[in-house]
Amino acid sequence: MSRFTTFAIAAGLTGGLTGSARAQGQAELAAQANEEGKELMYADKYAEAAKKFQEAVARVPEPKYFVNLCTARLQEGKLDEALTACDAVARNNPTPDQQSRADKLIGKINDEARKQGLALHPTGGGGQGPVPPSGPSEQPPPVDPSIQPTQPPPNYTPAVGRPLETNLVATRPDNRYTWTLGFDVFGGGGRVGQSNYYGTAVAGFRLKGDYLVDPINQWGTEGYLQVSHFGQGSRDLASVDTLDIIDVGVAGYKHFCLDATQRLCLTPLAGVHLSLMSPAGSMDETGSQVFNYAGLGGRLEVSLTYAFGQRHEHVLALTGGANLYTRVLSGPSMNSTDELSINEVGLNQGGATGYLGLGYTYRFNTPLGSSPFVILE
Fold this sequence. Notes:
Helices cover about 25% and strands about 30% of the residues. It is an alpha+beta fold.
């Protein structure tokens, strides 16, 4: 009796381990098929991609595989099959984000059906067929000849329309985007204006927006607005202490990214700007700060950037650079009794500052800045 019990326990453990290993193997094969399907989607091969996603959901019915399958079928114009796959998402414990994407796709499927004058006939099963064998040793179950396949109603015509003209899928993650919004904070040292009129430490921030002109060669343009602040200089001047500068400029840049990963890039940049200066926090009669001393300047910078996110949409940057300034070219009239002349505020000389900074940028990859309709998982 004891020997029999030991054998039974051993047999149960062996069966459990075998089942666990088989489940793990199916999950790995499903993930591999899904990755292959994504690559095919990026290459606009939707029918081939759908077959890979079909294989993935047949092995492991995960919501993300159904979303990908729904997307591929929709791109093909196979609206019934797309709707079936999207309907299956809700039955497989999706995350809120996965369900939201499925709902968006269902709305798109219905819109396409209306535009093309098609009636939808979603079927059960979510597009999940029999599980493909995971190896040569596994054989499909025998077919019972007494079971006849269910025939569709005589009047049933699958809703197959025109393939979509627009690719709904975000491209594979890389540094190709359309435009960005971001900000930097920086600090450093240097001098602007006559010596000792203003302090040599500078701190500031920058708001910026980029546009990737050439995605292939990865160069683009940037518009920026930066604010810099200098403290009081060593000269004891009652009318001059601090200096605030607003720079409004445009720049050009180019990404140099590692071949092994598109996440890490070195980006040199050069720009020119109009500099508006406010010595001693000049105020107008309403108490608002005025920047009525104007000059020109330049910006040279190198950034080390790291991109992360599903499509590399988030970017952190470590920057080092310099801001250059001419002497002030335009200021209050010499006859003005309320404001000091360019010479009196020490801005008849230019200057330069060096800085280090940290920045964050968010990338958009559609012309209006919206997110792509679908991001494959």
